[in-house]
Write a structure and sequence with these properties.
- By secondary structure, this protein is mainly alpha-helical.
- The chain has helices at residues 3-53, 58-112, 118-167, 174-199, 202-205.
Amino acid sequence: MTDALMAVNAKTSRAGADLLRIVRINEEIKRVVGVSFKINIMALNAIFLAKRAGTAALGFGVLSNELRVFSQDLRTCMESLTGLIHGCVDEVSIVLKDIRFTRLLRQTDQLTANGSVAPVLRQREIENDQHERRLSSLRKQLKRALEDAFRMVELGGVLAKSAKIEAAYGQSFAPALAQVSGEFDGIVEEIRDSLESLRRSAFFTGH
């Protein structure tokens, strides 16, 4: 096998691994979207509970409303990640198709040995490089969007922990408020774990 064909095979293997990693990232993003929807429902219930508790839970009500806004912002952020994921899938699919076509051209070039395939091969390699650069750009955008989502979740964690503190002032409603705030905290931590796992994806680290 020639060095060129070995290089093509290595590219195929790398692109195939990237495609698998992208699919896994997308599954995790869908899971975060589902959890953010759950926070929204919980926040609505918490706001209702805070109203029942009256002035003793004013702070808890404000924080619950902030958590509701957080869940909506998080979903919007995840939608932008989904858009980038779709772009990555498109580019990797094109790269894989280009690699297969390039391999055929190289094999044809070796068989004919008259140089007629060389110009087509060069043009194909230029296009391959362009798609790989686009994929690299999308990879960086996705990583930045993921960091934005992570910072958002850090804020959500602060809100959830503040709600736990406010729940203590809820007088007779304190146990119920404490339970809800504990659930908020647990769910936000769950999202943080998901995003941490995405940050470690080999799609970004290259390992």
